[in-house]
């Protein structure tokens, strides 16, 4: 955790935001251990799990957050660590995991909440133009074979307003793709979220406009920062994003 926090959040952020991230990162790591490894390792050190920078990135503030929350874990009703997801910025409303990955893991502890605290995120609002040709190439590289794309549409939205299913109008008919899979295919740093506010289409491209950065499920990191600045303690921050989880200080051996 000493090497994770400086890569996931700003070490100059308020200590209560750092403590919230420490609990979430600890819980996420423990949840993978209780599920059992499906490969040769329990966690990757990149964005698909948690970014890890090693000892050289450690900072006094983030180490303090880890130490002061030592043993604090978010548990489900059965006393197991939840799969505690987090992301950079929810763009104003968080999402349920099932609408991102169609998974019900730890679903009971999540909520879809309005969150006005992440608006200081420099990427809160964004736009990107992607040509239909580039779109097709990226989809095919991701294993989604489509013919020439003429138009796209949002087939289904979640309660948070995110695109759950996207329709691709091609020369051979409509191909439906999950919103999250489409985003990953385009590039998670290119298409920052599926919380689209507008799609401006021309004959050759689409200008995507949206809010937030990330999948939107669980802890909103910029929201946690905003809440800490507003005076909220880390336990209150965690309660906001995981309303039905139990925050408990436990020994690892008891899990």
Structure description:
By secondary structure, the protein is an alpha+beta fold. The protein has helices at residues 5-8, 15-35, 60-68, 98-101, 132-141, 179-186, 221-229, 234-241, and strands at 72-75, 86-87, 125-131, 149-157, 163-170, 173-178, 196-201, 205-211, 219-220, 246-249. A three-stranded antiparallel β-sheet has the order 3-8-7. Strands 4-5-6 form a three-stranded antiparallel β-sheet. A hairpin with a 2-residue loop joins strand 5 and strand 6 (173-178). The longest helix is centred in the first third of the chain and has 21 residues, at 15-35. It is elongated, with a radius of gyration of 19 Å. The chain starts with a helix and ends in a 6-residue tail after the last strand.
Enumerate the spans where pLDDT stays under 50 for 5 or more consecutive residues. Answer: none
* Secondary-structure element order, N to C: HHHEEHEHEEEHEEEHHE
Give the overall average pLDDT.
Answer: 91
Please report which band the strand proportion falls in: under 5%, 5-15%, 15-25%, 25-35%, 35-45% or over 45%.
15-25%
Structural class: alpha+beta
Radius of gyration (CA) equals 19 Å
Number of strands: 10
Ends: how far apart?
Answer: 18 Å
Instruction: Estimate percent helicity.
Output: 25-40%
Tell me the strand order in the biggest sheet.
3-8-7
Report the major sheet: 3 strands, antiparallel
What general outline do the C-alpha atoms trace? elongated
Q: Quickly count the helices.
A: 8
């Amino acid at each position: 955790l000493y090497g994770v926090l400086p890569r996931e959040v700003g070490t100059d952020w308020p200590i209560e935001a750092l403590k919230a991230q420490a609990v979430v990162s600890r819980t996420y790591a423990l949840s993978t251990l209780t599920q059992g490894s499906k490969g040769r390792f329990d966690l990757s050190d990149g964005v698909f799990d948690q970014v890890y920078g090693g000892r050289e990135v450690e900072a006094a503030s983030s180490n303090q957050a880890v130490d002061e929350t030592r043993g604090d874990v978010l548990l489900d009703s059965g006393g197991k660590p939840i799969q505690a997801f987090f992301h950079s910025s929810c763009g104003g409303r968080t999402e349920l995991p099932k609408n991102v990955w169609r998974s019900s893991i730890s679903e009971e502890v999540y909520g879809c909440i309005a969150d006005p605290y992440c608006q200081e995120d420099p990427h809160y609002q964004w736009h990107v133009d992607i040509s239909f040709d580039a779109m097709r190439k990226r989809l095919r590289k991701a294993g989604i074979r489509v013919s020439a794309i003429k138009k796209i549409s949002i087939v289904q939205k979640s309660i948070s307003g995110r695109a759950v299913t996207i329709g691709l109008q091609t020369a051979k008919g409509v191909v439906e793709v999950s919103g999250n899979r489409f985003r990953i295919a385009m590039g998670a740093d290119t298409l920052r979220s599926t919380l689209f506010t507008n799609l401006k289409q021309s004959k050759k491209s689409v200008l995507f406009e949206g809010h937030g950065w990330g999948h939107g499920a669980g802890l909103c990191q910029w929201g946690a920062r905003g809440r800490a600045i507003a005076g909220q303690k880390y336990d209150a921050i965690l309660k906001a994003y995981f309303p039905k989880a139990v925050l408990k200080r436990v020994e690892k051996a008891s899990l």
